[in-house]
Amino acid sequence: MRKGKLLVAPAISWLIFFFGVPMLIVIAVSFAARTPYGQVIFNFTFANYQRFLEPLYIRIFVDTVFTALVTTLITFCMGYPLAYSISKLPHKWQQPGLILVMIPFWINFLIRSYAWVVILRSQGLINTLLLKLGWITQPLPLLYNDYAVMLGMVYALLPFMVLPIYVSIEQLDHRLLEAASDLGAKPFTAFRKVTFPLTLPGVAAGSILVFISSLGMFVVPDVMGGAKSALIGNLIQNQFLSARDWPFGSSLSIVLAVLALVLIVLYYKAIQKQEGGTNNEEKLA
Amino acid sequence: MKKNWRSSALFAYSLAILAFLYLPLLILTLYSFNDSRINAVWTGFTFKWYIALLHNQRVLEALTNSLMIAAVSTFVSTILGTMAALALNRYTYKYKAVINGLLYLPILIPEIVMGLSLLVLFSQTSVPLGKVTLILAHITFCLSFVIITVNARLEGMHKDLEQAASDLYATPWQTFRYITFPLALPGIVAGALIAFTLSIDDFVISFFVAGPNSTTLPLYVYAMVKRGISPEINALSTVLMFATISLIIIAQVLQPQHTSSKKEKE
Amino acid sequence: MKKRIRLALVGLFTIALLVMGCGSNTAKQSVTNEKGEKQVLNLFSWADNFSPEVLAAFEKKYNCKINYDVFANNEELLAKIQAGGAQYDLIQPSDYMVSTMVKLNLLEKLDKTKIPNMKNIVKPLQAPSYDPTGDYSVIYTWGMTGIVYNKKYITETPTSWADLWNPEYKGRVILLNDSREVFGMALKKNGFSNNSTNKDQLDKAFADLKTLAPSILAYDTDTIKQKFIAEEAWIGTMWSGDASFTYKDNKNIGFVIPKEGTLIWADTFAIPKGAKNKELAEKFINFMYEPKISAQNYEYIGYNDPNEKAREFHSKEFLSDPMLKVAVNDVKQGEWLKDIGDGLTLYDRYWTELKTIK
């Protein structure tokens, strides 16, 4: 018990000082007012939270959560197989494989996004190719819409899905799979009943990282979406960098954080149920 | 036969995803040889950006700053994060749920809010802004990511081996050194990779906590946006990318062959 | 398992080497700084905003070192200066930000006797409305917002902001991604001031923008040049300096200042309160307006040179640039943005709503 405290103490104290204290300031600001020139004055008010209840802002929240959910789902569909393939590589090549997946993310995000614009724009790589092949007669509008925003998000967040999933697949006891197939389980059944449930911790961690990160995105909607869609990340960014309304920006951030926390708790509960469920099935089998 | 078909389909799918990841980098490499400063359309082949890069003291300084800050913050956050994950997983204590929640909170807060609030903290405590504040901030936002990733590994780990070790009178340290640590290592490496990735490309938080003489590469690149990002940055990215890939290949080739690794794992 | 450890160790070792490498590098630099052999000018500006040769010339002449740090947005600059603790000697706020900073008491008064070259600046720009006495700022770069269009697709030269609403340009229109720019444009179209905070006027502008929304390809400030060069977009709003850049890569580009008038902007030099090296900062400002230096500098950065005395040192190409000339001829058409304080809330509310239109 004492050891547990000793181990967790440095991280906790670090976060209390460098995160907890600043957050208290943010919470205080979210209940404050501001002067016409954007200075914060501490007159206690709920106005910033009330303002959030306007249909306009609620709609932006709903849109953002929807986008984040779809992004998470797509990254899962891409990330799981990729992580699975890496774990199937010869042992020596697994870590290099992992790093190969990570390298693109060490290159500046802005210039990678601009490269996507070059690929997708009306005179871009894909449209030129399709036109040359005669498959289309008019360039497709691939950019500056919600699909492009999702593509950008999936592209930006894939590693956060791949790494945790790889980490849990890699430790899978292959004897379990052999046992399943010895008992006559088809590969897909074995995957569904054995592999997948055992890698759920990785799936959960990956999904949470991707989901949360996509909630706060603001560069992707600007570059890939042509700044035509309003997501919560952009709204918050605007409060600080153009509307000069720190109190409203702070209250939006806190609402966002609380909302994400609730969703995560629900998600974890669901996962635990699933894990419990499969364990029972196994016992029955 | 059937199994073969399945795994090659999976492999092809994964290669396609890898291609998806590298397609923009291909464009970026191509455009590093483009003659145009604004780099909107192809105007001609040139090496001049690579030559300009060699003489661009500012970019090179920003790059060393970025690498240094990423290395230090990865190192510290990985150690702190691994320790915390171990504790969360192995021990029970009071208010565990609350502490768990606190550990996850930093990734829930938008970057700009974190950046500004850290700026307020540093200026109120008169910590001069610079590389030190950058490192402190980076460790803070990397920490939670490391904890979540390492935790994902520990949760799926069998506890029998640790149990067996302590039954055989191994000291807690020995159990950790010879059982827990090696088993958790892939999770730790993954956590470190995430931390490094976050740190090396962070812009928003870095902007607010940077001071004189501590411009990082992302800060430099974002600030160039108004005038148009110079193709020198494409050239730099290309060099970095190929250098990293070659380093990995060299490391792989130099490594002595082992056949027993699979056994060790089991 | 051992292999993995080894790999991790190799990685760590490389990182450690790197750290030690740059650590010792920077340590050396700061040592010479602290010894006081060399004075340091901490400059906080937009990236790529000076000719590197001019900076080097200044360092040589005054035996000092310039630390050139960068920001990308006026509000970021404000946040940072407001929080204090950022030890800059010289900053480059834009027009309206100068007046905001003066009101917030964040700027030092300039000692004009130390900056004699200030008188080289063209008259209309010596005392602009954001700093009418010229006590706090010196104009550095400036330009105007106008209509940019591609002559290949748009045969009739636009003359009015209303031309953006032409249904033939549907899906090809770009507006700057900035609420003040977009609403300022729509206000001007209706003959109002682009600093209006009158609700009726803003409502009218907003109603107009709603009808324009379906035509818009994207809102963009940062990569708008690329969109016009690659001919993704046909017509839109752009700064004169950017139009000049765009024209260099695509000769079909035209640029006009609409008859209703437009916005004029400037980036300036200013000294933040508590600057450690105010004297050197003033020397720097003065240096930048020496005719020869100024010509060399503006040729590099490609913006309008406000320095009258520098004209004789400029190349013919620079002086005859059609985009830069447009801006010079139309200064009277321009209206500076003012800090509208609380009015921003309504702008932001409408701006957010505009973005939710699908």
Care to describe what's here?
The complex is a heterotrimer of chains A (285), B (266) and C (358). By secondary structure, chain A is an all-alpha fold. Chain A has one domain: MetI-like (MetI-like fold, Orthogonal Bundle), CATH 1.10.3720.10. Chain A contains 13 helices and two strands, in the order αββαααααααααααα. Chain A has helices at residues 2-30, 47-52, 55-88, 91-102, 109-120, 125-133, 146-170, 174-182, 187-198, 200-215, 219-223, 232-241, 246-284, and strands at residues 33-34, 40-41. In chain A, strands 1-2 form a two-stranded antiparallel sheet. In chain A, a hairpin with a 5-residue loop joins strand 1 and strand 2 (40-41). In chain A, helix 3 (55-88) runs antiparallel to helix 4 and helix 8 (174-182) packs antiparallel against helix 9 (187-198). The longest helix of chain A is centred in the C-terminal third of the chain and has 39 residues, at 246-284. The longest helix of chain B is centred in the first third of the chain and has 34 residues, at 57-90. Mean pLDDT of chain B is 85; it is low at 259-266. In chain B, helix 3 packs parallel to helix 6 (131-155), helix 3 (57-90) crosses helix 10 and helix 7 (160-167) packs antiparallel against helix 8. Chain B has a domain at 57-217: MetI-like (MetI-like fold). Chain B has helices spanning 2-31, 48-55, 57-90, 96-104, 111-124, 131-155, 160-167, 172-200, 204-209, 217-224, 231-254, 261-265. Chain B has 266 residues and is mainly alpha-helical. Chain B contains twelve helices and no strands. By secondary structure, chain C is of the alpha/beta class. Helices cover 42% and strands 16% of the residues of chain C. Chain C has helices at 2-35, 52-61, 74-83, 95-103, 179-189, 199-212, 224-229, 240-249, 278-288, 291-301, 316-319, 322-329, 343-355; strands spanning 39-45, 64-70, 90-91, 138-150, 173-175, 216-219, 235-239, 253-256, 262-269, 334-336. In chain C, the strands form two sheets. In chain C, strands 4, 5, 6, 7, 8, 9 and 10 form a seven-stranded mixed β-sheet that branches. Chain C has a three-stranded parallel β-sheet with strand order 2-1-3. The longest helix of chain C has 34 residues, at 2-35. The N and C termini of chain C lie far apart (54 Å). Residues 1-35 of chain C have low confidence and may be disordered. The interface between B and C is large, with 54 and 57 residues.
